[in-house]
Write a structure and sequence with these properties.
24% helix, five-stranded antiparallel β-sheet, Thiol Ester Dehydrase, Chain A
């Protein structure tokens, strides 16, 4: 299984991945990443923060973007080169996050594609915004 090559991509192409964030997702991510920040895993601590509740790790949502890039657009075989992220709103347990990737620019000479990378919650609030540079697979 191989993703789309640079010749098969066009500006405006897009794909998405949607997942509801569970408490177990947060604990698993904390264990895998080593990020045990109490804002993510301690209800009592988090209730006294600005957000008044536990929030998901920002990089968990960023991982949903990686799922789109690696599995859908451009897809398997893509090399992730660079990612710029802005975290705009918190993600809470039970939020349904849709990660969307859209082709912005294609540089066939350098074999690099610039992607818009965004995550929205179930209320259509933009929670993460950014851009990525990738090398699509060379051939199918």
């Amino acid at each position: 299984m191989t993703g789309k090559t640079i010749e098969e991509l066009n500006p405006g192409d897009s794909a998405h991945f949607t997942k509801t964030v569970s408490e177990s997702d947060i604990y698993l991510y904390a264990g895998i990443s080593g990020d045990l920040n109490p804002a993510h895993i301690d209800h009592e601590y988090a209730s006294n923060t600005f957000f008044k509740a536990r929030i998901a790790h920002g990089m968990l949502s960023a991982g949903f973007i990686s799922a789109v890039i690696g599995m859908k657009l451009p897809g398997p075989g893509t090399i992730y080169r660079e990612q710029n992220l802005k975290f705009l709103a918190p993600v809470h347990i039970g939020d349904t996050i849709s990660a969307t990737v859209e082709v912005l620019e294609i540089d066939p000479e350098r074999k690099i594609v610039t992607l818009a990378t965004r995550c929205f919650n179930q209320d259509k609030t933009l929670v993460l915004d950014g851009t990525a540079l990738v090398n699509p697979p060379r051939k199918r």
